[in-house]
Design goal:
Gly_zipper_2TM_dom; OB fold (Dihydrolipoamide Acetyltransferase, E2P); signal; 2 domains; palmitate; alpha+beta; single chain; 5-stranded antiparallel β-sheet; elongated; Glycine zipper 2TM domain-containing protein
C-alpha cells in the first residue's frame, strides 16, 4: 500500500509539472504562431506599474485528470470487495479536486499592470507577466507591440 501510494504521488507530481508548463505571458516570449507576423508598434513612457497576480489555470484537464487517476488507484487499495470500488470512486473525486487546485497554484504567475502614456497622448493599461523578476519602472521609454488583438510592452 505504501509503495503504491508513493508511486501514485510520484506520477501525480510528474504529470502536474509537465502539464503546468504553460505559455509564458511576458513581453519577450512569443508563441510559434506569433513569429513572422506583423506587429504594430507604438511608443510611450511608463506612467505607473502595479504588482498583480495572474491567476493559475483551472480549465486544464492535466491536474484534474492526473489527480483523479492517482486518487482512484490509491482509493482502490482501501477496504475489500465492494469497499474497494467505493474507495476508488471517492479517491478519484478527491484526487481530481486536489489535482485541479495544485495545477491552479502551480500556474499562478507574478504579473504587473503597466500604464503607458503614448506619444500621441493616449493612455493605455495592460497586464503581463513579470520577466525574470524585473518590473518596468515609471519614466521608462517602452514600445507597445500589437498583433492579432494581443499587446505587449517591451523595451
Amino acid at each position: 500500500m505504501k509503495y503504491i501510494s508513493g508511486c501514485a504521488a510520484l506520477v501525480l507530481g510528474s504529470v502536474l509539472l509537465a502539464g503546468c508548463a504553460g505559455p509564458s505571458l511576458t513581453g519577450t516570449t512569443y508563441s510559434r504562431s506569433e513569429a513572422r507576423q506583423v506587429h504594430y508598434v507604438r511608443y510611450g513612457v511608463v506612467d505607473s506599474v502595479t504588482p498583480v497576480v495572474i491567476e493559475g489555470r483551472t480549465d486544464g484537464a492535466v491536474g484534474t485528470g492526473a489527480g483523479a487517476i492517482v486518487g482512484g488507484i490509491a482509493g482502490s487499495n482501501i477496504g475489500g470487495g465492494s469497499g474497494r470500488a467505493v474507495g476508488a470512486v471517492i479517491g478519484a473525486v478527491a484526487g481530481g479536486v486536489l489535482g485541479n487546485k495544485i495545477e491552479a497554484s502551480a500556474t499562478r504567475k507574478q504579473g504587473q499592470e503597466i500604464t503607458v502614456r503614448l506619444d500621441n497622448g493616449e493612455t493605455l493599461s495592460l497586464v503581463q507577466e513579470v520577466d525574470g523578476g524585473k518590473f518596468f519602472r515609471p519614466g521608462e521609454r517602452v514600445r507597445l507591440l500589437e498583433s492579432a488583438g494581443a499587446t505587449r510592452v517591451a523595451y
